[in-house]
């Protein structure tokens, strides 16, 4: 059964703050093999005008995806996650994520489309810092493949 | 923000230095730990084959993280990235053969967007094993 269009626009409560740590950023940068000093050296980051080390552009995905779990696991929506693949990913930044940030994510169902039996859902995550200032918007496009006919 | 590439020095068609990123099973295990994505299709060959994949595949978000390095290494300041989006078109298959896979990424300035904000759109191409693994891969970046 296709997903219910009336869920478009539904927002979920903001998540408890995720505290971004210098060592977590370092671990992520090392895992992607990126030696840019802005990720690990506070002085190098300051020389670029950042108050502390910044995170690689895609670092915030893990935080936004965890927040999107509220949508994915919403029993009323009824998404069959075993059939879901990650279709597209987008980020729109007001500023880079940095060490010391306490980030909260508000997830909203941006759109639901049905194409050739597949459900395609965009989940928007508004990521804000402790002061409520916008940091980045993430759009996670999930594609739930059509169930096989019995 | 201090980008090292001047807006006035680029034009539509300017190519960014291309890069190759090797991926082995060890890379994927490290990325799983760092990102918290422990989906077994990224480390368990038996599971990957059971769900119809040819072998273990790289995390799409790993490929996305590598592709933007062509942009961030070019501008110097990763904070200069204003916008970034990709479509995951084909998986990067990572065999356990001591070699693994390679993700090849190239990029070029597609358009100068805003003379005042000094932003340009960079289009990225990412391939592995001769196949395009990302589509619609675009970044907007603020230059000096």
Description:
The complex is a heterodimer of chains A (150) and B (144). Chain A is an alpha+beta fold and 150 residues long. Chain A has helices at 22-31, 42-47, 61-72, and strands at residues 18-19, 84-93, 102-115, 118-128, 134-144. Chain A is elongated and about 55 Å long. The two termini of chain A are 14 Å apart. The relative contact order of chain A is 0.23. Chain B is of the alpha+beta class. Chain B has a domain at 7-22 and 59-142: Hotdog Thioesterase (Thiol Ester Dehydrase, Chain A). Chain B has helices spanning 25-35, 45-50, 60-67, 69-75; strands at residues 15-23, 81-88, 101-114, 119-128, 131-132, 134-142. The longest helix of chain B has 11 residues, at 25-35. Chain A binds chain B through residues 27-28, 30-34, 36, 38-39, 47-50, 54, 56-58, 61-62, 65-66, 85-93, 95-96, 139, and chain B through 1-2, 21, 27, 30-31, 33-37, 60-62, 64-66, 68-69, 72-73, 76-79, 81-88, 136. Strand 2 (84-93) of chain A pairs antiparallel with strand 2 (81-88) of chain B, so a sheet runs across the interface.
